[in-house]
């Protein structure tokens, strides 16, 4: 393997991340469409899957491109679809705690399976040892975020 300059390495990494980000967005979009969700509704459910019940303000912080009024409409829609429940926050009665319903849990537990072919596509050209190294590098990168 030839030695590359730092600039070349950075360009390779940047191009890889953009390509993988676009591919992952396509998988997310197809999953959301199959569940009759918008992209933003999916994002809210994904946040709830990772974080559990949280206040609206925390969801808004995770979705900086979504205005509070749009987030309110998203939450209304998800509530109508029986994917979330809203309860007054006992610590701050001006705020609501958003919780995923059992239906949301059932739906979102299928997302990793939906992405399995994405993971296989990324790793199919790697040896088992290279896959292990890649996973360890991802863990190291994630730990420093």
Automatic annotation (TrEMBL):
<dbReference type="InterPro" id="IPR036388">
    <property type="entry name" value="WH-like_DNA-bd_sf"/>
</dbReference>
<dbReference type="InterPro" id="IPR023187">
    <property type="entry name" value="Tscrpt_reg_MarR-type_CS"/>
</dbReference>
<dbReference type="InterPro" id="IPR000835">
    <property type="entry name" value="HTH_MarR-typ"/>
</dbReference>
<dbReference type="GO" id="GO:0003677">
    <property type="term" value="F:DNA binding"/>
</dbReference>
<keyword id="KW-0805">Transcription regulation</keyword>
<dbReference type="InterPro" id="IPR036390">
    <property type="entry name" value="WH_DNA-bd_sf"/>
</dbReference>
<keyword id="KW-0804">Transcription</keyword>
<keyword id="KW-0238">DNA-binding</keyword>
<dbReference type="GO" id="GO:0003700">
    <property type="term" value="F:DNA-binding transcription factor activity"/>
</dbReference>
<dbReference type="Pfam" id="PF01047">
    <property type="entry name" value="MarR"/>
</dbReference>
<dbReference type="InterPro" id="IPR039422">
    <property type="entry name" value="MarR/SlyA-like"/>
</dbReference>
<protein>
    <submittedName>
        <fullName>MarR family transcriptional regulator</fullName>
    </submittedName>
</protein>
<dbReference type="GO" id="GO:0006950">
    <property type="term" value="P:response to stress"/>
</dbReference>
<feature type="domain" description="HTH marR-type">
    <location>
        <begin position="1"/>
        <end position="143"/>
    </location>
</feature>
